[in-house]
Amino acid sequence: MYLNERGYDVTPVSNGEDALALLQQEHFDLVLLDEMMPGLDGLSTLEQLKERDPNVPVIMITKSEEEYLMNEAIGRRIDDYLTKPVNPSQIFMACKKILDARQIRQSQAGQAYVSKSNQIREWLAGDMTWRTWIDVHRLLSEWDIEISRIGDDGLRQMIEAQRKECNHEFGRFVEHSYRTWVASEEDSPPLSVDVVPERVAPLLEQGKQVFFIVIDCLRLDHWMILEPMVSEFYNVRRDYHYSILPTATPYSRNAIFSGLFPVEIAKKYKELWSHGGKDDEHSLNRHEHRFLDDQIADMGIKLKGDSRYVKVIDTAEGQSLARKADSMGSVPLVGVVYNFLDMLVHGRSHSELLKEIAPDESGFRSLVLSWFEHSSLFELLKRLSRTDATVVITTDHGAVRGGRATKVHGDRQTSTSLRYKYGRNLRVDAKDSLLIEDPEAWGLPSTGLGSNYIVAKEDFYFVYPTNYNEYQRQYKDSFQHGGISLEEVVLPVVTLESK
After folding, report:
1. How far apart are CA 411 and CA 425, in angstroms?
2. For residues 217 and 30, what is the distance between their CA atoms, to the nearest angstrom?
3. What is the DSSP pairing of strand 420-424 with strand 400-401?
4. How far apart are CA 441 and CA 425, in angstroms?
């Protein structure tokens, strides 16, 4: 009667055999199952019930508080467990939790997101700092994940519009502030060049073994969906840093490993740094181990033994590293680069299959989660959790889904990236991008007389006037990096201590 009065249509049966027979004839949204029944007992009924309909939710009600019985029920995929005596309101709440959870979450999420959205608007109306922008990106990422989880199209459109507004303002903020950050550390955010001094060096000075892992192209929302899996094995501390510009591997990852801006790298390592056009992503990142060792030495840190460096570019390399993790206890510092996500981003641009699997940010997160769950990286982390090593995980840059094309004018020597370019006398719409005409003031090396850089803002990508419509269609909705957006710039730095 109690459940009927609250809108539930209840069909009573007195024993397990009758319940199973009825389930063969009709569909039920939920089964309330008494553990003690005449004939077939509750656990046996549960087992047969799940064989016939694995997806029907079941709440078991029992007077036994024995742990073994609870374990048996959980092992047979019970959805909830109530111990007698129970009152009707307890049963009602258990039913409501299972049957109405999604609707309740949608309703509550809508109210909560509107509140957070208003808070972000208030922040944008005031004086934004680099710290506030981290909070903005964190909130947007958290809500992007939650809205994707509950599948509310209205809320999804709202957050997409707000993210676009935020990225517009963030582009202006970075353009106004970045040169000051390069020139002075006073009130500047932690940048790529600060990751090792602030997050790795203090651990080495304490005599800890450190695995320093850089996952190329890991966005904050990607880390957020991986963090619950990692937290089963580690105590997780999440901090943040800003990628330097351009938000691309040759610049930001070298800055992490060397602790230097690209202009400083070019001066200190003249023989190692030279722009190589199309091959920059590969040719300019061949010396990361040396850069890391030099950076540690320049800080006056003396390691007890040589460091190790591993670049994981295929499955075999990753599996080999995971197997060796237990035997690397005497290595004080292990630097590791995982390239898979960056390869996935670039591969998606040219693969209709990957675009079908990951058509948007939510789909891409699912792909990242699936990869990580079965990856050699996760296996490595699980093995390291059984050692005394401290793990520091970060990334060199994120990625943004390109939405709008903007025309660029340059000669044939201009670099090929879609979100940033360097060359001579480049011209572009100032509303859509940042034009850097004095590279050294921005921490970048000059490539000769008249050389300049352009960096795309928001979700713009560069297309030449020749065959403009063709390339606009080809690269629309592709994930790219190198530009200025919250997704590319504001990044996680995570410290993991074994539980």
Report:
1. 8
2. 43
3. unpaired
4. 17
* C-alpha–C-alpha distance, residues 397 and 167, integer Å: 16
The Cα–Cα gap between 43 and 383 comes to 37
As a whole number of angstroms, the distance between CA 8 and CA 25 comes to: 19
Separation CA 271–CA 92 (nearest Å): 73
DSSP string across 42-98: HHHHHHHHHHH-TTS-EEEEES---HHHHHHHHHTT-SEEEESS--HHHHHHHHHHH
- The CA distance from 18 to 289, in Å, is 70
Is the pLDDT reported for residue 278 higher than 50? no
440 Cβ contact partners less than 8 Å away, ≥ 6 residues apart = 263, 446
State residue 90's pLDDT score.
Answer: 87
**Packing angle between helix 361-373 and helix 376-384, nearest 10 degrees?**
60
- 456 touches 190 (CB < 8 A): no
Residue 215 and residue 395 in contact, taking contact as beta carbons nearer than 8 Å = yes
Reported as a single tens digit per residue, the pLDDT across 245-258 is 999 999 999 999 99
| pLDDT for 187 | 85
DSSP string, 1-48: -HHHHTT------SSHHHHHHHHHHS--S-EEEESS-SSS-HHHHHHH
Q: Which of 481, 344, 444, 337 is nearest to 395 (CA)?
A: 337
User: What are the pLDDT digits (tens) for 190-222?
Assistant: 999 999 999 999 999 999 999 999 999 999 999
Three-state DSSP state, 339: coil
Task: Check residue 51 and give its pLDDT.
Answer: 86
The residue to which tokens 């539980």 are assigned? 499
User: What residues pair up with 498 in beta bridges, in sequence order?
Assistant: 234
Q: Which two tokens stand for residue 418?
A: 């879609």
CB atoms within 10 A of CB 308: 16
Long-range contacts of 313-316 (CB under 8 A, 24+ apart): 313/339, 313/343, 315/376
